[in-house]
Amino acid sequence: MSEWTTTRANPLVDPALHVWGWEIPVYLFLGGLVAGMMAISGWFLFADRHRRTDSVAHLLPGLGLALLSLGMLALFLDLEHRACAWRLYTTFQPASPMSWGAWILLLVYPALAAAALLGLTPALRRRLPALAGLADRLRADARRVRAVAAANLALGGLLGIYTGVLLSTLAARPLWNSALLGPLFLVSGLSSAAALVHLVARDRAESELLARADNRFLLVELAILALYLAGLVTSTRVHAEAAALLLGGPWTAVFWTGVVGLGIVLPLAVQTLAVAHRIRHTAVAPLLVLGGGVLLRIVFVYAGQASRWPPA
Amino acid sequence: MARFGMVIDTVRCVGCMDCVAACAVENDVPAGLCRDWITTETSGTFPALRTEIRSERCNHCDRPPCVTCCPTGASHVEPLGRVVLVAKEKCIGCKACLASCPYDARFIHPEGYADKCTFCLHRVTRGLDPACVAVCPTRCMHFGDLDDPSSEVSRLLRERPHHALLPEAGTGPRIFYLT
Fold first, then answer.
1. A281 in a domain, yes or no?
2. Into how many domains does chain A fold?
3. With an 8 Å Cβ cutoff, are B169 and A88 in contact?
4. Which of A33, A35, B79, B141 is most buried, taking the most CB atoms under 10 A from its CB?
């Protein structure tokens, strides 16, 4: 038995680490959502859906730009030394996932902007003739369209994985210390984006297509979560204690009820019935998926900070 | 190249906190924050109890996770003594280094940058000991080059039983406690 006292009482660190508040889960969710939107945009561009006026392909890249900017704003608000934020772009630190993320985000913007240009709606084309000319030149060459599609797919994948890797490399917090966090956050981002398309698509076939895809993403997410927990529980004592935060500890109820129950299992059941045409498609399932995506990041960011190595 | 480290005799340490006060004054550490602190650990089962009093700080690890996770290179290993430092003008205050440290040795300075023990490198370059070592009334703290076999710290580690904090975290801490 060991009893431990300290004179240290540094803010943000004691009695337990709490350096990241609401801004980081918001950023991680929006980053993951936009990653999924880019992947779907890329897929739609390959499928030539941007030429159809009723396709959601017109909406995704522009909305992605707006949501990513919101996420970046949340990230900026979290910084303690905001005047130095430009320093991120004076160097590349290959061992730092945050440095990778900063540069990936810089590439994501032009890729999204190019996809937005390809999906320019007729109304916007009339209002912005200069952009319409640029869009026509881009559309005229199939190789350029394929390059924009590939860039959106690849950068979407990188962005989605990076949001998980960012946490998983911080080995001092055992709950984050799993290589499965990258794939988990990626598939959660894909699922959220599919849910968003399911929610906003005007074309019923497109909505149903993404609902079917979302069901697969949700199944994969469940499988990764199970593997992740199994990995922690069967690892070292500190990792098993970290997993206990979600398996009987203070984050158990919100994780199992909110993230797994309401965020994955229930919408999966509802969408399975909907795509089988046993019930109508409603906004309930996609809204639950989006809420579950937010909650997943909240639980992981807060519970992860509560997990730690023993004092000595 | 030197590899600075510290050896602290827990048999002699009385937890007087002179090291904490000296650090705060020497480094102008803002009130309510600390770069070093006293930990008291009591282990065993009554009546066979053992208490260890330790003066703790950044471990200036051989494999510092705070340096690898830093996105701007603000956290770096100084060539002199391989001391882990923060270039405050480069730090954006993202707090990844705080989250990456298994010792929770860092904090955010009110000016917004990550701050921590520097081994008083500004004193060491003038041939002086770090402030905490210099003021210790029981002379329980020793500072020197761990790679120099003739240094006092190397001799103490050869002659006395000792341990480091959380060696299982794999960061290679360079502060050792004599028992």
1. yes
2. 1
3. no
4. A35
Going by pLDDT thresholds of 50, 70 and 90, the confidence category of residue A55 is: confident
Q: What is the mean pLDDT of residues A260-288?
A: 96
Q: What secondary structure letter does DSSP report for A35? A: H
Predicted confidence (pLDDT) at residue B148 exceeds the cutoff of 90: yes
Interface test with A, best of B13, B33, B92, B165 (most A CBs within 10 A): B92
Residue with tokens 């699922």: A191
Name, in order, each residue with C-beta under 8 angstroms of A117's C-beta and a sequence gap of 6 or more: A131, A134, A135, A138
Q: Please tell me the distance from the alpha carbon of residue A137 to that of residue A140, in angstroms, as a whole number.
A: 5
Q: Cβ of B167: how many Cβ atoms within 10 Å?
A: 10
Residue A264 belongs to some domain of the structure? yes
What confidence tens digit (pLDDT) does each residue in A205-237 have? 899 999 999 999 999 999 999 999 999 999 999
Query: Which residues of chain B lie closer than 8 angstroms to A310, CB-CB?
Result: 166
Spans of all domains in chain B? 4-178
SS (H, E, C) B125-160: CCCCCCHHHHHCCCCCEEEEECCCCCCHHHHHHHHC
Per-residue pLDDT, A312:
56
Which of A82-86, A184-188, B44-48 has the highest mean predicted lDDT (pLDDT)?
A184-188
Q: Which domain holds residue A272?
A: 23-81+92-306
B89 touches chain A (CB under 8 A): yes
Residue A104 is assigned to a structural domain of this protein? yes
Q: What is the pTM of this model?
A: 0.94
State the nearest Cα–Cα gap between A290 and chain B, in angstroms: 26
Distance (Å) of CA A251 to CA A243, A307, B41: 10, 11, 29
Name the residue among A5, A17, A91 with its Cβ closest to that of B99: A17
Give the domain CATH number at A298: 1.20.1630.10
Q: pLDDT confidence of B1, banded at 50, 70, 90?
A: confident
Q: Do B72 and A88 touch (CB under 8 A)?
A: yes
Q: Is residue A4 part of a domain?
A: no
Residue carrying the six token digits 């709490």:
A18
Query: CB A79 to CB B102 under 8 A?
Result: no
Q: Is the pLDDT of residue A58 over 90?
A: no
Query: Can you tell me the ipTM of this complex?
Result: 0.92
